[in-house]
Predict the 3D structure of the following.
Amino acid sequence: MAALWETAVALSLPVFPCLANKKPSIPKAHGGNGFKDATTAARQIRDMFRAYPASTLIGVPTGAIIGLDILDLDPAKHPVEVREWVAQNKSRMPATRAHRTHSGGLHYVFEHLDGLKGWTATPTLGIDGRADGGYVIWWPAAGYPTNGRKISRWPEALVQQFVKKSPTLAKPRPIPRINKPRLERIVRKVALASNGE
């Protein structure tokens, strides 16, 4: 049987070690940065997993870094809410890859939507999203099944439920006006300042 670090390398995704409670293994006190420690470098992966032998799971960052977002349905904690949401949104869910999770939930995998960030309990309890700034446990590496389908794009009808304003529809922020005389005074003051000021 392959060592966990070998399994992690074989994923060809940026990875980092996690504990059984799904938290990153490398503590902050030892310089750990959670999902920011993720790497594809085989030697670094091996060293991380060997340095923290309590690691039993493989973490993968989500969002632009890997080009994938995750829709996390967790009926174990909120069975009624998740069941009702699934029944109402069956027609909106495209055929996309899904991974079974340890708690009996599902991770639906989508192509990353530019600008999408993670969310919690939206539109209902038991439904979370992992995108920019987040991570997931890669459950297939722990032996949990996947449907093996091709990864789909996010349907706009779903995105509208999870974020107040879809990243694809967001208007760019206006560029603030520069007060040129004030800027010139600041530059002049800095240029004339002596050492230590």
About this structure: The helical segments are 4-10, 42-51, 79-89, 156-162, 180-192. The longest helix spans residues 180-192.
